[in-house]
Amino acid sequence: SGMMNNKKIVVMGVANERSIAWGIAKSLHREGAQLIFTYRKERSFEKLKGLLEQTGITPLLTVSCDVLDDESISAAFAHIKEQAGSIDGIVHSLAFSDKDELKGEYLETSREGYLLAQNSSAFSLVAIAKQAKGVMSEGGSIVTQSYIGAERVVKNYNVMGVAKAALEASVRYLAEDLGKYNIRVNAISAGPIKTLSAKGVSGFNDIMQTIEERAPLRRNIDQEEVGDATLFLLSHLSRGITGEVLHVDAGYHILG
Ligand code: 0WD
């Protein structure tokens, strides 16, 4: 323990115990980080409180933040700055699309569905990164969560794949803009994990089975593995890395 001692990290996107953000929170806690959580829905806040109690984790702060709302974002980060002072990292682990867009053909994507997915899943990182500049006075690290649907056509992933492509491109542009402040920006591209959000993707179980059969490691990955890789990108160990997309997918992405 201790890699993250005295580091304050904001974790966004814990909906329940299966959330990737919760796997990340556990890795960070193990290494001594002080955690600040943001949540959107009241239901998630209740889940989060339960999880924190169960695991004996005392958060530095829990703040409500809806990434679709600029006022909510600026209020959340003003509150964080006031209560916690300067912070060292932000975990952006959220995305949203209407379920109806995550099946059938991408060609059928509606304008509204496209804009909502981009807004929630890609622009949200830009909005958060803008805030980071003001609260990371000594530099820091921002890590977001992507998926291979950004790079390749994954059946049914559709509009979310296009949003993840924008997210990964945003990681590179933001890394350039924030590098001069010693703020790094990276993404994890995780293999499929059964979470609340994953339930919305049609044919998700088939994807998981394909990974088990074909990925170099012949298995799926879990929240704890994403948690540890995210921990690395938030820590001093990754200080020379920015603008990167790191695959935590049992090697699946190397296959043709
Ligand atoms: O297989 C998977 N599960 C993968 C997920 C593989 C690769 C990547 N990812 C990504 C997701 O696309 C997402 O970016 O990881 C990230 C986290 O996903 P998850 O852990 O699978 O999802 P989930 O447990 O459902 O949590 C997502 C949270 C929910 O929290 P709330 O409090 O709203 O229930 O993101 C939230 C979502 O609702 N979220 C928002 N939070 C604040 N403001 C917003 C928003 N506007 N929209 C969605």
TrEMBL record:
Coiled coil: none
Keyword Oxidoreductase found: yes
Residues annotated as binding NAD(+): G13, S19, I20, D66, V67, L94, K164, I193, K194, T195, L196, S197
Catalysed reactions, as listed in the record: a 2,3-saturated acyl-[ACP] + NAD(+) = a (2E)-enoyl-[ACP] + NADH + H(+)
Gene Ontology biological process terms from the UniProt entry: fatty acid biosynthetic process
Assigned keywords, A-Z: Fatty acid biosynthesis, Fatty acid metabolism, Lipid biosynthesis, Lipid metabolism, NAD, Oxidoreductase
Gene3D superfamilies listed in its UniProt record: Enoyl acyl carrier protein reductase, NAD(P)-binding Rossmann-like Domain
Pathway field: Lipid metabolism; fatty acid biosynthesis
Keyword Lipid biosynthesis in record: yes
Organism superkingdom: Bacteria
Family: Belongs to the short-chain dehydrogenases/reductases (SDR) family. FabI subfamily.
NCBIfam families, per database record: PRK08594.1
Name of the protein: Enoyl-[acyl-carrier-protein] reductase [NADH]
The organism of origin for this protein: Paenibacillus algorifonticola
